[in-house]
Design a protein that fits this description.
The complex is a heterotrimer.
Chain A (H helix, E strand, L loop, with lengths): L7 H12 L15 E5 L7 E7 L2 E12 L10 E7 L15 H15 L10 E3 L3 E13 L4 H14 L2 E2 L10 E2 L7 E8 L2 E4 L3 H6 L3 E6 L5 E7 L6 H26 L2 H6 L5
Parallel strand pairs in A: 4-6
Antiparallel strand pairs in A: 1-2, 2-3, 3-6, 5-6, 7-8, 9-10, 9-11, 11-12
Helix pairs in contact in A: 2-3, 3-5
Chain B lengths: L27 E5 L7 E7 L2 E12 L12 E8 L14 H14 L11 E11 L4 H15 L9 E8 L2 E4 L3 H6 L2 E7 L6 E4 L7 H48 L1
Parallel strand pairs in B: 4-5
Antiparallel strand pairs in B: 1-2, 2-3, 3-5, 6-7, 6-8, 8-9
Chain C lengths: L2 H9 E2 L4 E3 L5 E2 L3 E4 L2 E4 L3 E6 L2 E6 L11 E9 L3 E5 L6 E4 L12 H4 L5 E9 L5 E4 L6 E3 L3 E4 L5 H5 L4 H10 L2 E4 L4 E5 L2 H16 L6 H15 L1 H9 L8
The chains are: A alpha+beta, B alpha+beta, C alpha+beta.
Chain lengths: 273, 256, 246
């Protein structure tokens, strides 16, 4: 695809600006584009969210159904995360089976939720060893303008927070809100020349490397990380990203909690495991 | 399939479950130009159906052997998101969506001036975010708006709707229960400008007379939908013009 | 809807709209004739010039025309060719014979290498839309420095303006060098601050291309932002409204 070749003039312009402490759209290095979160738009899904960061847009749906638990965790619900980089979102996305890029995206979002015990999977057990709730988080990217990781993670969290466990539909009792333990939020920075910029826009995504995604929970603990793309960070750079990420994640969590109206729960969460 | 006892699809006054008359459409809203990256796009809500259509092209054809040396090919990809239906659908194309994709591409091709762009593809992507009967018609209607929004030269638009039969009554635009428990489904698309029928499928049972009524309902409705399509395209530019006019004085006050 | 809005809406036509049934008008660009009737072929603004009715397109990809001056990006270099992205449906091959330098076999990258941005001319487009490019024109050269960015090709006529008027307004006010390719690729060079302001002005023209009195609006915009400085300008570009689907 012709889009893979970035003209040297564009690359130089973006990198030179970064050297002077500036970004091509005028943002500060740690500044996000406007973020919008909307939940409950897909009535057929148990939970759903539409998230926009600038012009990047994802729709996330959570579907739930009773199923068999894994033999090694007979009393735990099951969660699966998938991402589709559907070709409507970018001229660079192609039809066909998931490619490494969408698999990485799904796995990073998955890790940010699974390894943080975000969902209280034990509460999603219906009958130990026989029946548990299976949760499918499906991420649909509809417009790609940079920084998919944060949009997808935020979308997944918003969809989960808005989800209702559909007991009634399966004649198992009354619907209940999705049991949530934690509020992890991912933030992503990319290296542009000497600068570390957060929420990379499309051009920055194409020019910058490497990239680091960090998830923090509501107690400011680091809960998941992923370094991607060719190139390396110094330890100081990693620490700098983590420090800024903590602040940014807190801001985004406030917005998340406000939109989904689950503030009360957030105060009740326990630190750590 | 027979409706479960107690579910009446049509009442004694000839009204349907949602109060519609037999020849009445569900609520439809459309918005053109909702995506940044796509060359043209449309978001459409039709009852509980939610569809985004996006168009890319004319652009290079991959794989190469699909290309036509004399004209553009119009390719459509109809795809249901996993969360669009009650039971999660596995991502990726299945036989149903591949068949629909083929038919939608074929329905759109006749309006596009394909000979203007030899050896290229015009790709139309229809993402069904939520499904509630009539998704292919909703997708086709949105796709036509997205093509126009992309600036693709076309002789006209394509509008689509389904008709059917429930409790021995011909009705327009089936909702989910009517589709599940009704007797007949007839998705139709026409080019409103010429009246040509570019999509026609049917399953169930119709007499000749019932078919005539169903087609008349559909054709009338397609003209109505065509009006909404035109309005959606006009509004994209109208909104922009009005917004600018209204925001300008305020903006300059801030600056000074 | 106010009267003014209604008038503006009436001028916007969609494919298949009837433009004239009097039989007295001639079909212009982006229209077609059936019997005595003329219809719109594309989404755009209805336009009359003399006895000709046409549609000024509001969107669409670049459709190369002979003698277009354009900006391209080198994608690949072969021993005697370059493959160039000019935002046409497919990349275009340019042969060493079509550049003003004598290039030895296998030495193409000494002149232009992948990632380079070049100003080119469309020499020829045949009936099946095969494109021939040339750099054998005084205006053509390799560009360096500055910034390149893309706009909708359908907006290029407004960005250039009548007789280059709009571009000149922007260049003068921002003290930049600027070239607008017919394919919607724009190159601007100058102080970073000035380049950013010029780009913002171009974006303004792009988004308001279908409205009237644009030159005055742009002049005012440039004047205001020269005073208020970069900070505010950048803020404004970010503060886009959350557009709801519904």
């Amino acid at each position: 695809m012709s889009d893979d070749i970035v003209s040297d003039i564009k690359r130089d312009y973006i990198v030179n600006l970064a050297k002077q402490g500036q970004r091509y759209d005028g943002r500060a290095f740690d500044e996000y584009r406007p973020i919008s979160i909307e939940t409950g738009l897909i009535s057929r899904a148990e939970g759903s969210a539409r998230v926009r960061i600038g012009d990047t847009e994802v729709v996330v749906g959570v579907k739930m159904a009773p199923g068999e638990p894994y033999p090694d965790t007979p009393a735990s619900g099951v969660m699966t995360t998938s991402a589709e980089l559907v070709p409507i979102a970018s001229p660079d996305f192609e039809t066909g089976p998931p490619r490494p890029a969408s698999i990485e995206l799904a796995r990073v979002v998955d890790r940010g939720i699974r390894e943080t015990d975000t969902i209280d999977l034990e509460k999603l057990c219906i009958k130990p060893g026989e029946k548990v709730w299976m949760s499918f988080i499906d991420i649909h990217v509809v417009d790609y303008d940079g920084n998919l990781f944060d949009a997808a993670s935020l979308g997944a969290m918003a969809a989960l927070l808005s989800a209702k466990v559909p007991y009634a539909r399966f004649e198992l009792g009354a619907d209940q809100p999705m049991p949530i333990n934690h509020y992890p939020v991912s933030t992503t920075a990319i290296k542009l020349g000497p600068a570390l910029v957060f929420d990379p826009g499309l051009m920055e995504d194409k020019v910058g490397r490497p990239r680091l995604t960090v998830a923090h929970d509501e107690h400011n603990a680091i809960r998941a990380m992923q370094k991607g793309l060719i190139g390396g960070f110094t330890l100081e750079e990693v620490k700098e990203i983590i420090a800024t990420s903590k602040v940014k994640a807190r801001e985004m969590r406030e917005q998340l909690v406000k939109v989904t109206g689950r503030e009360a729960d957030a105060r009740n969460t326990k630190p750590g495991h | 399939m027979k409706p479960p006892p107690g579910l009446k699809l049509i009442d004694e006054n000839g009204r349907r479950m949602d109060g519609r008359r037999p020849d009445e459409l569900r609520k439809i809203t459309m918005k053109a130009g909702v995506l940044k990256r796509a060359d043209g796009s449309c978001y459409l809500e039709w009852g509980n159906n939610k569809v985004i259509a996006g168009v890319y092209g004319p652009r290079e054809v991959h794989p190469r052997h699909d290309q036509d040396a004399t004209q553009a090919i119009v390719r459509c990809r109809y795809s249901m998101s996993p969360f669009s239906v009650d039971d999660r659908k596995r991502p990726g194309p299945d036989r149903r969506s591949q068949e629909i994709s083929k038919l939608l591409g074929e329905a759109l091709s006749p309006v596009v001036l394909r000979q203007m762009f030899p050896r290229t593809a015009i790709d139309v992507f229809c993402e069904i975010l939520e499904a509630e009967a009539g998704t292919r018609c909703a997708a086709l209607t949105a796709a036509s708006v997205a093509l126009a929004d992309a600036g693709i030269p076309m002789k006209g638009m394509v509008a689509s709707v389904a008709a059917g039969k429930i409790d021995n009554t011909v009705v327009l635009d089936l909702r989910k229960e009517e589709d599940n428990f009704g007797d007949t489904d007839l998705p139709v698309a026409i080019i409103p400008k010429t009246g040509e029928i570019v999509l026609l499928q049917m399953d169930g049972h119709f007499t000749d007379d019932e078919f005539d009524v169903a087609m008349q309902y559909s054709i009338d409705a397609c003209h109505q939908i065509h009006g909404m399509q035109k309005q959606a395209l006009r509004e994209k530019y109208l909104d922009a013009a009005v917004e600018k006019r209204m925001s300008e004085p305020a903006e300059s006050e801030v600056m000074l | 809807m106010s009267q003014e809005q209604r008038e503006e809406a009436a001028d916007i036509v969609v494919p298949g709209d009837l433009l004239d049934d009097s039989g007295r008008l001639k079909p212009g660009f982006n229209t077609y004739k059936e019997g005595a009737n003329i219809f719109a072929l594309r989404l755009g603004v209805r336009q009359m010039r003399g006895d000709q009715v046409s549609v000024l397109a509001l969107s669409g990809r670049y459709d190369p025309q002979r003698n277009d001056l354009i900006i391209g990006t080198i994608l690949e270099a072969g021993p005697s060719i370059w493959i160039i992205d000019i935002r046409a449906p497919s990349p275009v091959t340019m042969h060493v014979n079509d550049v003003p330098w004598k290039v030895d076999f296998g030495e193409t990258t000494k002149y232009m290498a992948p990632g380079d941005t070049v100003l080119l001319k469309v020499a020829f487009v045949d009936e099946i839309k095969k494109i021939q490019l040339t750099m054998k024109d005084r205006a053509c050269r390799k560009l360096s420095g500055g910034l390149v960015f893309e706009v909708a090709p359908s907006k290029v006529p407004r960005i250039i303006g009548r007789g280059g008027g709009m571009t000149n307004v922007i260049k003068t006010a921002t003290n930049t060098r600027m070239f607008v390719g017919q394919n919607g690729v724009i190159w601007i060079d100058g102080e970073p601050q000035d380049v950013a302001l010029a780009m913002a002005a171009v974006r303004k023209v792009e988004s308001e291309a279908h409205t009237s009195g644009l030159t005055d609006k742009v002049k005012q915009f440039l004047q205001e932002h020269r005073r208020s400085g970069m900070e505010q300008l950048k803020r404004a570009s970010l503060e886009k409204e959350w557009s709801s689907w519904g």
